[in-house]
């Protein structure tokens, strides 16, 4: 007899990992397969990163790390956000996690109460909706087809927001579509959100550097949203470090503190 919680039984298995496994099985049978499931870069972790990690092991960086991450790493993230994104954060606003995936889940668990609505533009990365379910929230799927370049419009966003809307998950550059929101498109969405102060934006920017369209813009750059945007990023995609499991959340202090509190327990 199984004794699983409703929370677990209502969760779907990762479709991405299932596809990846299927592809590995076919490869093992000698089938020529191009695996487009998991987002694995087609290069290796750069040598200076590998060398630094080896040095860190030799220097006995093998004890429990601080819950929000090592201070030097958080300082480097603050510097990156300023240099590459023009965003101002303090180290207290940065929480390092085991990949962007954990950062997103932490954020949802900090924000969402049972029955709260979370807007997810579709097509979406499969884990978002499962994480919303874990947090006992309600997914509100906003379809954005090829006719609109897979991007939601301000009108769609306005129509989807209700008093129960807690968060919008925005992924730019997008997995799976590759669409990139321009600065002006983000500004138009920010103008809508300015009218709805109960909505927090979870801005998944993990694909920032896999962008063949134009300059990356972050919705966190609009002052009107500064105290309610959770920027999610990490090293998996840009530096081919998917297996290293290093991601981060950059957020207003109230949210960063909550994510650290949560992470301190699991
Ligand atoms: C859109 C999106 N966000 C987040 C992640 C998770 O990244 P990480 O490896 O840092 O957990 C992925 C990984 O495939 C992704 O596609």
TrEMBL record:
Q: Which CDD domains match?
A: AAT_like
Q: Which PROSITE patterns match?
A: AA_TRANSFER_CLASS_1
Keywords noted in UniProt: Aminotransferase, Pyridoxal phosphate, Transferase
Q: Which InterPro entries match?
A: Aminotransferase_I/II_large, AspAT/PAT-like, NHTrfase_class1_PyrdxlP-BS, PyrdxlP-dep_Trfase, PyrdxlP-dep_Trfase_major
Superkingdom, taxonomy of origin: Bacteria
Q: Name one Pfam family in it.
A: Aminotran_1_2
Gene Ontology process terms (BP)? amino acid metabolic process
Please state every residue range assigned to the domain named Aminotransferase class I/classII large. 32-265
Q: What is its EC number?
A: 2.6.1.-
Example of a GO MF term: pyridoxal phosphate binding
- Cofactor dependency: pyridoxal 5'-phosphate
Which principal EC class is assigned to this enzyme?
transferase
Q: Can you tell me which family this protein belongs to?
A: Belongs to the class-I pyridoxal-phosphate-dependent aminotransferase family.
| Protein name per Swiss-Prot or TrEMBL | Aminotransferase
Q: Which organism is it from?
A: Tannerella sp. oral taxon BU063 isolate Cell 5
């Amino acid at each position: 007899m199984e004794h699983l919680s409703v929370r677990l039984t209502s969760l779907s298995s990762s479709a991405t990992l299932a596809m990846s496994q299927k592809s590995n099985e076919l490869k093992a049978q000698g089938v020529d397969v191009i695996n487009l499931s998991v987002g694995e870069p087609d290069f290796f972790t750069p040598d200076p990163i590998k060398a630094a990690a080896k040095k860190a092991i030799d220097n006995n960086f093998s004890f429990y790390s601080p819950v929000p991450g090592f201070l030097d790493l958080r300082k480097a993230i603050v510097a990156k956000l300023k240099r590459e994104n023009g965003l101002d954060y303090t180290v207290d606003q940065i929480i390092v996690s085991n990949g962007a995936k954990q950062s997103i889940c932490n954020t949802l668990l900090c924000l969402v109460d049972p029955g709260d609505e979370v807007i997810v533009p579709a097509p979406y990365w499969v884990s978002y909706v499962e994480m919303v379910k874990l947090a006992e929230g309600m997914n509100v799927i906003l379809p954005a087809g090829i006719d609109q370049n897979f991007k939601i419009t301000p009108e769609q966003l306005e129509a989807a927001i209700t008093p129960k809307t807690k968060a919008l998950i925005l992924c730019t550059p997008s997995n799976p579509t590759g669409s990139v929101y321009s600065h002006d498109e983000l500004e138009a969405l920010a103008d809508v959100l300015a009218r709805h102060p109960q909505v927090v934006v979870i801005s998944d920017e993990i694909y920032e550097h896999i962008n063949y369209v134009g300059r990356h813009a972050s919705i966190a750059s609009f002052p009107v949203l500064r105290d309610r945007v959770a920027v999610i990023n990490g090293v998996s995609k840009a530096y081919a470090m998917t297996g290293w499991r290093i991601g981060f959340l950059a957020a207003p202090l109230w949210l960063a503190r909550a994510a650290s509190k949560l992470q301190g327990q699991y």
